[in-house]
């Protein structure tokens, strides 16, 4: 089954404790991205990647890192999480950066206390 | 940067039509999209329209595009309780810009 998976689905952590949210897709998609969703603000793009070893900042990259060592994986790293990073995070992938459909993962709800 | 605006809430009675409106600023968008997010789930592409079209119909869904006014709408005919969700408008030919989402509430 074609899908985008994220882990963990839920995470509660404390300020400053490094964490990684994994994202994996099995569709051989070139393009992957991370979004955060906050009430009243909709979806905001954090980082995106157009292919292996190619990453770029989205609209709200501060406090986040990503890597794209393999085509299928695009982990999101929070080196020192802060409470303002409490949010719902979505990973997405598409065949290319101009493909009309993005496939979204199920989301990761992160709470930083 | 590009901006996509949509109202935050819409409440309709079951069986009525719902119309969700959206305005965008990126006149070079090749595609305009509507995504649906059900509770606790990720976004799923509902429908899309090419920028050279002005209407697209797909069963109960009708998308209207007014390129001159940069206005996009999604009409859902015979709205059902299962249509309750957040609907996101998005525009772009490169990396899509999403609106804030419209929560559609369908009541009996």
Describe the structure.
The complex is a heterodimer of chains A (113) and B (108). Chain A is mostly beta strands and 113 residues long. In chain A, 0% of the residues lie in helices and 50% in strands. Chain A has no helices and 11 strands. In chain A, the strands form 2 sheets. In chain A, strands 2, 4, 5, 6, 9, 10 and 11 form a 7-stranded mixed sheet that branches. Chain A is globular. The mean pLDDT of chain A is 93. Chain B is mostly beta strands and 108 residues long. Chain B has strands at residues 4-6, 9-13, 18-24, 31-37, 43-50, 55-58, 61-66, 71-76, 85-92, 97-98, 102-107. In chain B, strands 2, 4, 5, 9, 10 and 11 form a 6-stranded mixed sheet that branches. The termini of chain B are far apart. Chains A and B meet through strand 5 of A and strand 5 of B.
Give the number of DSSP strands of chain A: 11
Tell how many strands the DSSP assignment of chain B holds.
11
Taking the sheet with the most strands of chain B, its summary is:
6 strands, mixed
Instruction: Tell me, briefly, the overall form of chain B.
Output: globular
Low-confidence stretches of chain B are none
Mean pLDDT of chain A: 93
The secondary structure category of chain A is: mainly beta
The end-to-end distance of chain B, rounded to whole angstroms, is 40 Å
Structural class of chain B: mainly beta
Q: How helix-rich are the residues of chain B, as a percent range? A: under 10%
Radius of gyration of chain A: 13 Å
